[in-house]
Amino acid sequence: MTTTGAHQDAAGAVARGWWWWGRRRSAVLDVALGGVSALECAVEGVGFAERAGLPVAVGLLFGLVAGATLVLRRRWPIAVVLVSIAITPAEMGILMGIVGLYTLAASEVPRRIIGLLAGMSLVAVLIVTFVRVRQDIASADFDPGPWYVPLMAVFISLGMNAPPVLFGLYIGARRRLMESLRERADSLEQELSLLADRAEQRAQMARTEERTRIAREMHDVVAHRVSLMVVHAAALQAVALKDPQKAAKNAALVGDMGRQALTELREMLGVLRTGESQPVARASVPLAAVGRAAAAAAFAAEAEDGPCLDRLEELVEQSRQAGMVVELRVTGEARAYGPEVEQTAYRVVQEGLTNVHKHAAGAKVVVRLAHRGDEVAMQVENGPSDGAAADAGLPSGGNGLVGMRERVTALGGVFVSGPTDEGGFRVSAVLPVSPGA
């Protein structure tokens, strides 16, 4: 519940406890005004009773009842103004007329009703004042002229009716403006709260996506290199005593693989450090925007420095050196693509070869790369595993195919994997491309 809603509920509770008054001081003010008005009308009622030839008690009681109706001004402002107009011929209710007109003008009553009642009050006061001034001049010993009586009647009637009506209209307009501004503030507060929640959700999604991407990159870099290192180490152990020259060659390959893995890991960690330093340098930028910009910059920097299709022959040769029989078939005219497309295509082939090392030792592999008009396709297909080949005993976390699918679908491509009819396994991907510089 908002603060404004709590205040409204509290005001409603007070209003129910004090009839139609929203606050205690409003009730006290209206009761006090009603008492003063009743006293005024009672005094004026005595003079009215004497002029009309009525008992004084009747005029006094009539004045008390009529003046006390001012207490109802907030609930029934129209009734209060009508009562003040009705007792105007008796020269009673000056305070009631002024306060009633102000309350009526400041209320939510339609403007045409306010104008009608204000005009009726003006005419009533004008007629009574005209008659009263004329009587006073008739009883006096001087003649001020024909213009004096109507001019005084107009001045007095306008002075008693115009100021309260104008002031009431101003207060009513100001009150409605404040309520409108308060509602707008509450609406803006709710919108800001929703925006903050959405920003937090987007930031959480960005963090999750970034963690997934980092895990995928670490898997691609480490799994392939370490798998080759394990295969070469197994071969080194097998031929260490029989063929020292081949053992030395395998040992050199293991060292090269380790150095390449460390180099790629250092490059990745360098990109991550660069992405982390950007929000600190631009602390004035909103956190969600900085997170998205840093993630995009990190991915772009990694894609620029990452592997590309030009190194595909080198990747295949590394698997051949590990004892795998690999055939690379390239169709179409080779050309440059965007860095994210080149890196994704390279990683798909890399992960496909890694899976063959893990799950199909000794199997023959065919790597196909097809350059087409608006897409590039790659496929890694292996035959059944050679039962005579020694299993390297490589562990599998089951994340390779998931990572490849995430990479390909993120670029709007299609990824398919599954066993073949010959007992092997096939991994295929198609990526939409736009020629790069």
TrEMBL record:
Cite the EC number.
2.7.13.3
Q: Where does the chain cross the membrane?
A: 52-72, 78-101, 113-131, 151-173
Domain of life of the organism encoding this protein: Bacteria
Q: Does the keyword NADP apply?
A: no
Q: Which reaction does it catalyse?
A: ATP + protein L-histidine = ADP + protein N-phospho-L-histidine
Q: What CDD domains does this protein's entry cite?
A: HATPase_UhpB-NarQ-NarX-like
Q: Which Pfam families match?
A: HisKA_3
Q: From which residue to which does the signal peptide run?
A: none
Signal transduction histidine kinase subgroup 3 dimerisation and phosphoacceptor domain location = 210-275
Mention one GO molecular function.
kinase activity
Sorted keywords for this record are: ATP-binding, Coiled coil, Kinase, Membrane, Nucleotide-binding, Phosphoprotein, Transferase, Transmembrane, Transmembrane helix, Two-component regulatory system
Where do the coiled-coil regions begin and end?
A: 171-209
Look up keyword Signal and say if it applies. no
Cross-referenced InterPro entries: HATPase_C_sf, Sensor_HK_TwoCompSys, Sig_transdc_His_kin_sub3_dim/P
Cross-referenced PANTHER family:
NITRATE/NITRITE SENSOR PROTEIN NARX-RELATED (PTHR24421), NITRATE_NITRITE SENSOR PROTEIN NARQ (PTHR24421:SF10)
Q: What is this protein called?
A: histidine kinase
Q: Which organism is it from?
A: Streptomyces ficellus
